[in-house]
Amino acid sequence: MTIKQALKHKNKVAQKITEAFNKVKLYNSLEEGQNRPYDVEQCLDEYFKLTRELVELKTKIHTANTPVYSKIFEMSELKSQVSKLKDLDCGEGKVRSYHRLVDDSTITKNAVISIVERDSMISKLEEIIESIQEQLDVHNATTHI
Q1: Is 59 within a domain?
Q2: Which of 99, 105, 118, 132 is deepest in the core (most CB within 10 A)?
Q3: In this predicted structure, what is the pLDDT of residue 105?
Q4: Does 8 reside within a domain?
Q5: CB under 8 Å to 43, separation ≥6 — which residues?
Q6: Terminus-to-terminus CA distance in the chain, angstroms?
Q7: Are 3 and 57 in contact (CB under 8 A)?
Q8: Are residues 131 and 84 in contact, defined by beta-carbon separation less than 8 angstroms?
Q9: pTM for the full model?
């Protein structure tokens, strides 16, 4: 199984874990006389079995990703930079003052980094992120665990 396949399988296992425990939660304690459609102990056993499977799968994925951890971490930090830059106020000129609720006055703002510069930085970072993602996609499609 490739990492790509393992990642898809991991998501399915995680969903099954949630479903199994939800059955335990819903049907463990019922009013006397109510129908219990699932065997709670069997669902709990399934929950524990699937959790062990998920731990093993995650361990294999992480071990196989050791050669590309630097790329994974770099991409994460680049995404964080993009997020922060997108929140950067680049407003310039006269704008309404939102600091005083009763006052409709305007203030004049001067930005060091213009919106055009910010957008250019974001664009360059997103290109790097895309390149790293392509490298990781190749790794995930060709590396077997």
Answers
A1: yes
A2: 132
A3: 77
A4: yes
A5: 20, 21, 23, 24, 27
A6: 6
A7: no
A8: no
A9: 0.77
